[in-house]
Amino acid sequence: MLPREELLKGVENRESVARVIDLTEQAIKTWEVVLTDFLSPPVLIEIQQQFSRLTEVQLLAWGGYPQAERQRLAIAREELPLDQSQLELAVIDIAGNFLFDTATHRDFLGSILGSGLVREKIGDIIVLPERGAQAIVVPDVVEFLEIHLTQVRSVPVTTRRLDFSELKIREPKKKERTTVEASMRLDAIASAGFGVSRSKMVDFISAGDVRVNWKEVKQASYLLKSGDLISIRGKGRLEVGEVAITKKERYRVQLTSFK
After folding, report:
1. Closest Cα to residue 159, out of 168, 169, 151?
2. What is the model's pLDDT at position 16?
3. Where would you tag: which of 38, 40, 182, 232 has the fewest CB atoms within 10 A of its CB?
4. How far apart are the C-alpha atoms of 184 and 36, rounded to whole Å?
């Protein structure tokens, strides 16, 4: 048996982590590769941190492409071979004419959930301007969606399975910059990295639109460190790189933005 209470100590997503512990014990007992449904980034991070101390099992996460936010986990005994091909995923195309009724990520997700599925069955959704979207899903829901997902907003859609080679992923635009700040406060670093005023950044933070390492942070004074990942809804991500102290005791910070 795994040290359940030790693994759950201090975690925020206790219910989700507990389910993965159950699946891990199943993998140990049956000597089989066991798969989770799709997990959100905060849950993935907690699981990977908590399970890093276990030597008898291995975890492999994959969401269909390198930048995928939502991913499934494959869990197996350390002795077994484990690779991405064992993480069963499918791609669906949701096609319609959205030229005059533009749909957002939230619209597509809402229609999928409105068909009767739960969020855990759905991975990333890639919105294709004017013509619809593609979604990565658990394979066993493809036929259900082909039948039941027929409309998004006011637009009729057709839903069909695609080959993974047809997945339309846009590589994020990467930009590197250096800023010198008096502190490592979230509002100071993020405003420099995203190119917005500090007061505007404070508004984003207060509204709950800012996440650090996928966790919502509402304190503008939150102190960052090298390696932290900042994301703002609709504006991309910012990675905090090397941090150095200048002669005037200010912080010179390397930043990389992804949009």
Report:
1. 151
2. 94
3. 182
4. 37
